Amino acid sequence: MLVSYKWLKKLVNGIDDIPVTDLAEKMSLSGIEIEGVTVPGEGLSKIVVGEVLTCEDVPDTHLHICQVDVGEEEPLQIVCGAPNVKAGIKAITALVGARIADNYKIKKGKIRGIVSLGMLCALDEIGIPESVNPMKHEEGIYILPEDAAIGDSVLPYLDLDDEIIEPDILANRADAMSMRGVAHEVAAIYGKTVNFEDKKLTEVDRKAADKIAVKVETSTEQVPTYKIRIIENVKIAPSPLWLQNTLMNAGIRPINNVVDVTNYVLMYYGQPLHAFDFDKFGADEILVRQAQDGEKIVTLDEQERELSREDIVITANGKPVALGGVMGGLDSEITEQTTNVALEAALFNGTSIRKTSHKFALRSESSSRFEKGINQGTVREALDFAAAMIQELAGGEVLSGVVESNDFMPEPQEVKTTLERINASLGTNLTVEKVLEILAQLGFETQENKGEFHIQIPSRRWDIKIEADIVEEIARIYGYDNLPSTLPAGATVGELTAMQKLRRKVRTNVEAAGLSEVIGYSLTSSEKAREFVNGQKPTTSLLLPMTEDRQTLRISQIPGLLDIINYNQNRKNADVAIYEIGNIFLASDSEDSRPLEIPHLAFAISGNVEDKTYNSAAVAVDFYHAKAIVEQLLAGYENLSFEADSDIKEMHPGRTARVLVGNRQVGFVGQVHPATAKAYDIKETYVASLDLEAMLELAPAQTVFVDIPKVQAVNRDIAVLVDRDKTHADIVEVITSSKVRSLSKVELFDIYQGDNLPEGKKSMAYSLTFQSRENTMTEEEIARAMAKITKNLVEKLNAEIR
């Protein structure tokens, strides 16, 4: 919803001098967040009211030479190609040097050799969006009212100098989806009073009930009330400029004086209305019912829609004329030929409207209000206001009486609370007088007796039902910033859980490695939810997702990280190193079918880990850089190992490894498959995923300090010839299992495959470090250790010592 500050100032007394930025801040702090404030005419300049004195055709062209009076000593000559330009009209005139839409500057120029000193403008040329523009560009320039003063800026005439407030209205504050609702809120915040316009409705002697009857076949739960007024002998015409401006600033396109009134009242009261061409009904009875399966209607957007039993329809002569609460039918729309109008106001079940709206992807201003709720106490008032307004603008005759299904009114609501309860909840020392003052600001009638409050809730605040709601209202108006800051009572000292400690440790380590934290979406597309999960299937999808890209709970964080890398690299940020700590969602055996939430760490690195300098080349990320981060995270875990893995089809089969602690897999690390990287449109990227629950379970109970040896270490090299299918991990496992206590380090320093080696063989050279903790090792001890290792390699791997 868009709120015109000009309009709001008319509805709330005493806020004329309050800057809109202060108002927006106050509303945000009191519970209705303001997303922004815009000025429609911002950036426009030197655009004035001009009167076309003469208009001459340019032979053999569609152009016209106009002499335009803009309030200067001499009229300006302006060449215009609009089909509707003529002498005697007043038009939007951009002078030389003016700025119009898209910051386009008007310059003195020649068109077909004819000097032109400005421009006569259509609405779109001064920035009015097509969605709210009452004219198409090809229809020509916009003609201003005859009383527009020549030479004045057009911005006030078109309300382009207005300030438009955009509140973010949540479902719990749907009362603010109307100008009257916003006015009550602002009045409460500032302690002001509201000033609502009244209209006198004059009825003729003819009775509406003699023309039409209303019958509701569905339940009162679906349609609590349905009301119709008949207005005869209207004259359809464009709305006055003030009404068109009001609607355009509210984001609604003006159509004609009858339809515009229904939209105006929608914005003013929050009550959806619909105007039918009464003569097109072909019947003297309106029937409101559930649609029949397969029944069809062509709505105002000229789309044929097939209905079902869950939809509410308004019918005449057995045929649907409107989709209740969502959109009217094309066959009964108001046109220039309309003379008699049936004006509808009703209440519809919000759940039913939401289902219909979602099914047809047909979200309207009316449906959004029925979904969230409307003021059930002002249905008749809004209907009468609209009828009087149509009578005023279209000259119609309002027939006597309202034809309705019932005289429904909501039950009055009363909420009780006490001063003690209010102060205990808020930590304040408010007095009875202060509470009564706040409740009066809110417009709540209150009776107080010895600190107990009996509060009558007006129908416009249907969100208030219980004591806690009243306490919240008092807190909002008193000011959240005025509430005292207090600490919880008691001597209990909180501490971090084991998982929280692990998460902090992991975060510290990966950030020390140069990675930046990101927060990805838990919901992803059904296709991406199947990636990097080795055949696992997604467990949970939303029935009514907002978008297809956010419908399935993730099993892996990596697709989200790759999307972030894509976003960065598309914006010339080629070197990306990011991580996320969050939950993945796996299948559960629980009765309620809720998925298991497993905390995981995932990271992704792409590009260079070191930039090029004057004396060194750039260093690109590789498998070993990613593996080193994993090793650092798992430092101290017993029996940590990496095992080649080719099962994950989205990972490079030769550069991916399972991460094992003992026999349990805690994750994987490796390069994203080039085909997957191409699909995500990213450069070579390395990723890892680790199960934090498994890491917590397998973490060493404690770290035992070991004295630094006082004796010197000894190094020996060994080269072995082994089959090509043997891995580094295989060889290290054999060496370390040789039960040589003094062996402290095994380091690979050379691999050779090629000439002068037997077929299917490779040579691998290792540096072995020996260090005794008691004495300096003798040559005999070193020789015995090397012999044990050599024997083990020969027996277990059929290795040849070189």
TrEMBL record:
Top-level taxonomic group: Bacteria
Residues annotated for Mg(2+) binding in this entry: 463, 469, 472-473
Recorded catalytic activity of this chain's protein: tRNA(Phe) + L-phenylalanine + ATP = L-phenylalanyl-tRNA(Phe) + AMP + diphosphate + H(+)
EC number: 6.1.1.20
Cofactors required: Mg(2+)
Domain TRNA-binding, first and last residues per copy: 41-155
UniProt-annotated location(s): Cytoplasm
Domain FDX-ACB: 709-802
Quaternary structure, from the entry: Tetramer of two alpha and two beta subunits.
Record-stated family: Belongs to the phenylalanyl-tRNA synthetase beta subunit family. Type 1 subfamily.
Protein name: Phenylalanine--tRNA ligase beta subunit
